[in-house]
Amino acid sequence: MSSASGVAPWRPAPGRPREQVALLRQPPDHRGVPVTVPPLVEPAGELTVDEVRRYSRHLIIPDVGMTGQKRLKNAKVLVIGAGGLGSPALLYLAAAGVGTIGIVEFDEVDESNLQRQVIHGQSDIGRPKAVSAQESIAEINPLVEVVVHNTRLDNDNVRDVFSGYDLIVDGTDNFATRYMVNDAAYFMGIPYVWGSIYRFDGQASVFAPTLVEDAPCYRCLYPEPPPPGMVPSCAEGGVLGVLCASVGSIQATEAIKLLTGAGEPLIGKLMIYDALEMEYRKLKVRKDPNCALCGENPTVTDLIDYDTFCGAISAEAAEAAADSTVSVHQLRTMLEERESGERDFVLIDVRDPNEREINEIPGSVLIPRGEFLNGQALEQLPESKQVVLYCKTGVRSAECLAIVKGAGYSDAIHVGGGVGAWVNQIDPSQPAY
Ligand SMILES: Nc1ncnc2c1ncn2[C@@H]1O[C@H](COP(=O)(O)OP(=O)(O)OP(=O)(O)O)[C@@H](O)[C@H]1O
Prior knowledge:
The protein is of the alpha/beta class. The protein folds into two domains: 3-40 and 75-310, NAD(P)-binding Rossmann-like Domain (Rossmann fold, 3-Layer(aba) Sandwich), CATH 3.40.50; 315-425, Rhodanese-like domain (Oxidized Rhodanese, domain 1, 3-Layer(aba) Sandwich), CATH 3.40.250.10. The chain contains 19 helices and 13 strands. It has helices spanning 16-25, 49-54, 56-59, 65-74, 86-96, 129-140, 158-162, 175-188, 218-221, 234-237, 241-260, 306-310, 315-322, 328-339, 353-356, 369-373, 376-380, 395-406, 418-425, and strands at residues 76-80, 100-104, 145-149, 167-170, 192-198, 201-207, 269-274, 279-284, 325-326, 345-349, 364-366, 386-390, 413-415. The strands form two sheets. It has an eight-stranded mixed β-sheet, sandwiched between helices. The longest helix has 20 residues, at 241-260. It is elongated. The two termini are 50 Å apart. Bound molecules: adenosine-5'-triphosphate (ATP). Adenosine-5'-triphosphate is lined by residues 80-84, 104-107, 113, 117, 129, 152-153, 171-174, 177, 233-235. Adenosine-5'-triphosphate binds at residues 80-84, 104-107, 113, 117, 129, 152-153, 171-174, 177, 233-235. Keywords: ATP-binding, Membrane, Multifunctional enzyme, Nucleotide-binding, Nucleotidyltransferase, Transferase, Transmembrane, Transmembrane helix. In the N-terminal section; belongs to the HesA/MoeB/ThiF family. One of its GO terms (molecular function) is ubiquitin-like modifier activating enzyme activity. It is a single-pass membrane protein.
């Protein structure tokens, strides 16, 4: 039977609602042993009349209530990065009434950030993200005290910056910072909420090995960073802007649960979100008894050199690129010489085709990195010409350079800084990304 609009009314799949209700009615241990943790924060004193009005929709939720709201008021939360994940996390933590919010961020707002970093606006381009975020928070909730750490979090300042916070929310985008945050949080006994995003996929978890016995840390889940070049950053691989809202708000939700003691936090669980399939899955994460940090015989007993640990490029790529890298200015001269017939070479763009639609170095051909990895590219390389490779930043081209040199093209080179540097330094008329 059709509805008045001609569209069949939605009917749940037969039996589905009953299954869901049955699942919800199961005792908690059927869904895994619940990890309950006491609230991280003691309640503040009485709320003011303004606060009661502002937070009234929280106050009538039994799991939050007056006491939960007072805990939020007393809470000190540090958010690392006011970028894709930090933006929604900061906005919702501020709106929820977290009393003190720290923001640690060194970068400035770029036009390409605005597709997802919704705490910043058009007029903030070029301004420090931490300051822009502070101003947005003041607009949303002037009752929140914002502490700005306008700096890059590193080994030298991490303990000072973390000091005094009840909880950390990690919204950063690089492995070196993530391992440093994990280790420093463990040494200082501060739980933290982690999130990560890439294209249409997101992950989130809560790491609290000092709070809950047998709870894992980030190193239990990921003992080592991925091989350099294996996992592209969002700048290299892209990210669906709205994905940040999904994952950043999960992080804010977990933070609120931990601060107030409501519900069951994602401790020992990994939330995996697939936006293309619109699927959320939860996996158990166990503590690794061999974990280098929180295991039985730890080898990491202090902060380490995280840049070396995570290595921007592999040892082979670094070796191949060591004496075979040209700057974009040198490349421009080379292209002029090729134009006048003084030299010959083939300039190869190793990025993906969709990246090449955004910008390119003129006079280049496309052979994506994947074809270097599976060997197909080698069949297309001219034997008599020098091979010159570029990508977006120089990481993927260095990796391909190692393959090309290994195949006998000893005079092959790559372009340091890639098309990003070309657009910045040579041809600003093309868009950057
Ligand atoms: N060590 C650090 N200290 C402070 N902030 C950091 C640190 N590492 C990363 N960040 C910040 O975390 C944020 C992560 O945001 P996001 O993942 O959206 O990337 P982005 O760097 O803004 O964008 P893109 O990589 O596309 O240029 C960035 O604003 C970045 O400056």
